[in-house]
Every structure is written in C-alpha cells, then in structure tokens.
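Folding Problem: From Residues to Backbone Shape
Fields: amino acid sequence; protein backbone structure tokens
RECORD BEGINS BELOW THIS LINE
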Amino acid sequence: MNLKEAKYNYLLQQHKNNIYGYALYMMKNQMDADDVTQEVMIKTWYNMGKFNMMAAKTWMMRTTHNLCIDYLRRRKAVLQKEVVIDEGFTENYLDEDESNNPLLKVHWKMMSAKLKQVIHDLPENLKSVFVLYEIQGLKYKEISKTLDVPINTVKVQLLRARKKIQKELKSYEPQEVL
C-alpha cells in the first residue's frame, strides 16, 4: 500500500460516518445519500494531493454539502420519506424508571417523530447549520469553512434554527398520550 492509499484509507475511516450521516439528513433518502457519499469518496481520491490533510474534514464536508445541494436542485421534488435522526433517541432520554412506563415511552416516540419532522421542515440553510453543529458535532469554524459563510452567519442561523424548532415543539402536545 502506497502513501496515497494509506492517507485515503485513514480519511475514510475517520470521516465516512459524518459524510454519510450529513448526506442522509440533507437528502432524506438512503439511496441518494449513498450516491453522495460515494461521490465524495471518489472526489477525495482524485483530489488527495490538492488539500491539506489537516483540513481534510472540512474539505470533505464542504464537498458533501455542495453535492447534496446539487442533487436537491436537480431533483426539485420534496421527498416525504422519514429519515432516522437517532434510533436511540427515546432510550437516550429516558432513565430506567421511565423506560418501564409505556405511557412515557409512547410520548417520547411521538416527540422524537415530531422533532425529526421539524428538523426536516427547516429551510435548507438553517437545517444545514443545525445538522452540522448539533448532530455531526462540527465547530463553528468548521461549519463556516464547510458552507463558505462567515462564522457570525453560522451562529445566527443556528440560533434561528433552534428558535424555530423550539417554537414548533412548544405548540406540540400529543393529545393521545397526555
């Protein structure tokens, strides 16, 4: 294995889950996310010498974002398929006593579904920043470079996304559970 292959394999091991996860949130479709992820991997291979290894994550995430936007523009149809944000959402927020309560389990499942829908309904610019920060765990500076926007824009869009989500969830009260 030569040096280029070793670097490539290292990058894929480090970033493939973030790339796929982000593509899945943006595309709302597993097959399209697979295509975007594969394209990013191909572009990474062909551009290995053209970017700094220290900035590889930002380069790969920016490429992922741009490809997602390109795919969405071409497709122009809104898909209504559900994308799982976190299958363990309910389990992550329920303690042991609550997890045995079927009423609370149902409530958390309904809240989880509503949260997923609210995130998917965000405008693309707010959703991109929210997903990269809250779900993918990128820092403001990384998001700024990935989306090619100023850091202050990232902060403002993240705040707007959070407020919009909070507003939507505040008015939500599942009637069947409570």
User: Anything to note?
Assistant: Residues 40 and 165 are 30 Å apart (CA to CA). The domain at 3-75 is CATH 1.10.1740.10 (Rna Polymerase Sigma Factor; Chain: A). The chain has two domains: 3-75, 107-170. Residues 77-94 have pLDDT under 50 and may be disordered.
